[in-house]
From TrEMBL:
It comes from Rhynchospora breviuscula. The keyword Zinc applies. Keywords: Metal-binding, Zinc. Belongs to the UPF0587 family. InterPro entries: CXXC_Zn-binding_euk (IPR008584). Pfam families: CXXC_Zn-b_euk (PF05907). One of its GO terms (molecular function) is zinc ion binding. The keyword Metal-binding applies. This is Uncharacterized protein. The lineage of its organism: Eukaryota, Viridiplantae, Streptophyta, Embryophyta, Tracheophyta.
Length: 178
C-alpha cells in the first residue's frame, strides 16, 4: 500500500480558515481526483469522485475489506481508501505564506493520485459568519463583504512509512516550510 497526502493552499481574505463543508473528515465531502496507473502511466481522462461515506467492497484478489473507490484503468484495477484524522483546516497565515496544509490522506493500490479538483462546496469562517463556497469556478468572491478565497492550489505527496510514523504525521504542523 502506498499513502499520499493531499495538501492545499489558497489566499484567504475576510475569513480566517477554509475546509470542507462539514468540517474536517466530512463524510459526504466529495474529493475529485485523477489517478495514474503506476505500471503504464495512463491517467484517468476525467475526475473520479471519492468520499468517506461511499464504501465499496475490495475486488476479491485484493482480499477482504472496503475502499472508497475501485476503478478500472488500462487493464488494471486500482483502489483508493481515505484515511481520516490527519488533516487540518487551511488558516489565513498559511495561505498568506503560500504554505500547503494537509487536508486528507489516501491509501492507494495500483494507481497514484496526480490531480485534484476543488469542484465542490467548501466552508470558510469569518468572525461573524460561516461562509459556504461553491468552488466549481476555482475561487470565491463576495465583493460587498470583502470575502475572497483565491489562488487555490493542491498537490499530492507520497508519504514514506505512513503507519510507522503516523504519530509524527498526526502531530506535525503538516505545513511546508516548517
Ligand atoms: Zn496501466
Amino acid at each position: 500500500m502506498v499513502y499520499f497526502q493531499l495538501k492545499v493552499t489558497a489566499k484567504l481574505a475576510g475569513v480566517y480558515n477554509f475546509q470542507s463543508r462539514g468540517g474536517l473528515d466530512d463524510p459526504d465531502h466529495p474529493y475529485f481526483i485523477k489517478l495514474q496507473c503506476e505500471n503504464c502511466g495512463e491517467i484517468t481522462p476525467s475526475f473520479s469522485c471519492v468520499m468517506l461515506s461511499e464504501e465499496v467492497p475490495l475486488p476479491r484478489v485484493f482480499g477482504r475489506g472496503t475502499a472508497n473507490l475501485v476503478q478500472k484503468l488500462c487493464d488494471r484495477v486500482g483502489t483508493v481508501k481515505m484515511i481520516p484524522g490527519f488533516g487540518k483546516p487551511l488558516n489565513h497565515t498559511s495561505g498568506e505564506c503560500g504554505w500547503y496544509v494537509r487536508i486528507m490522506v489516501f491509501e492507494c493500490h495500483g494507481f497514484a493520485p496526480v490531480e485534484f479538483s476543488f469542484g465542490a462546496v467548501w466552508k470558510a469562517q469569518s468572525r461573524e459568519n460561516l461562509w459556504e463556497m461553491d468552488m466549481c469556478k476555482g475561487e470565491f468572491n463576495d465583493f460587498d463583504q470583502r470575502v475572497h478565497v483565491t489562488g487555490l492550489k493542491a498537490k499530492f505527496e507520497r508519504m514514506k512509512s505512513f503507519w510507522r510514523y503516523r504519530n509524527s504525521y498526526l502531530y506535525s504542523p503538516s505545513i511546508d516550510g516548517w
